Amino acid sequence: MKKLFISLLTLLTGLSFSQELEKSLLWKISGNGLKQDSFLYGTIHITCDASLDKNTLNALEKTEQLCLELDMDDKSMQMQMMKHMMMKDGVKLSALLNEEDFKVVDAFLKKNLNMSAKMFDGFKPFIVTTMLYPKMLDCPFQSVESELMKISAEQKEEVFGLESVEDQMKVFDNISYEIQAAELVKMAKSDLQKDKDELSKMMKIYQSKDIEGMLKMMDDSDNKITSDNQDVLLTNRNKNWISKMSEIMMQKPTFFGVGAAHLAGEEGVIKLLRKKGYKVEAVQ
Fold first, then answer.
1. Whether the Cβ atoms of residue 274 and residue 16 lie closer than 8 Å to each other
2. What angle do CA 243, 42, 156 make, to 5 degrees?
């Protein structure tokens, strides 16, 4: 009977540990020596509606600084990004693609960016993809990060980043250039339609505050950059952020804003903070 009880307890503990997180974008962080609460918010980098609800505005009011993935008010950020846009070792897009696919991409970029693929020949293909994000929307481009920064500026608070531009750009040196190029070809051949459909679905999941759904969508995506590289895109970065977040929160109550998919899952920021001893609660 004792063995049966222990087995049952172990099973229940396992079920509890793997339980999905609540549907919330805003989370309060307390305990583990913190004198004041900090907050964690899941953002979306491109959207039609970046408005913030009352709870989020209250959390921004209660905190004394904003920390995003990058220090986005750093005036040198654009210059730093330019340094890391090129593929390493002189790799060229024209060498990654056959002649026919390169022509398809060339026509596609001329149509959507008014520039030839030859101008981007040495660029990491994913960087070219990001330039096309506004074309995937049927509305004016908005950014949650920009909205958070606007509020912080009004409150005369500082903005920090959890990682450098170099750190973030190097992520795309650790994802096969061949895969990045292949995804750019797929985008060109569908003339953005598939990407528009996927972004529309993602925005609906985000609006429902389903952070676990955001992570599952990445898992299930046909895009090999996201579905096959979550260790590079999410997990490794999440783990690197935890010690930095701990140091920052100890100094001042902080509002953290990172991509919503970073929050979810067993290796997401929420559960990693809990493992570190913090109490992390959904703010509904």
1. no
2. 80
